[in-house]
Protein: DUF2917 domain-containing protein
Organism: Jeongeupia chitinilytica
Amino acid sequence: MNPPTPIRLAPRQTVSFAVGRGSVLHVVHGAVSLLASPQWLAETLITGEHPLRQGEHWLFERDGRITLRTDGLRAELTYQAPFTVAATPRHLPRLVTFRRWQRRMVQAGNPDLPAPVTPEIFSKT
């Protein structure tokens, strides 16, 4: 998981932001109302307001937007997003370099390179 991000809310303050699946919201001090993003369930729009008090946490099961609202007192929370892994494979830069080299060789008319092979499924018979 990524390091937690502190959130401080003044009395009667409302804040809205996007959350990711697997994120965790923890109430360190005070109390908040969590308004989850609405979802469709059997042709019915479900919206939910969940009160969270000091020491409680909320695990987000899906991506969406939430709204946090404090009532009369200030609140301190931490938001922790899940760790994300880069989608780029380690070999991709080498493959790009090889394809550029191959393209240059073909454009230069290098006789040592074999002619491109067309798979049988694409050839007309």
Notes: The mean pLDDT is 81. Residues 27 and 56 are 6 Å apart (CA to CA). Residues 5-80 form a domain with the Jelly Rolls fold (CATH 2.60.120.10).
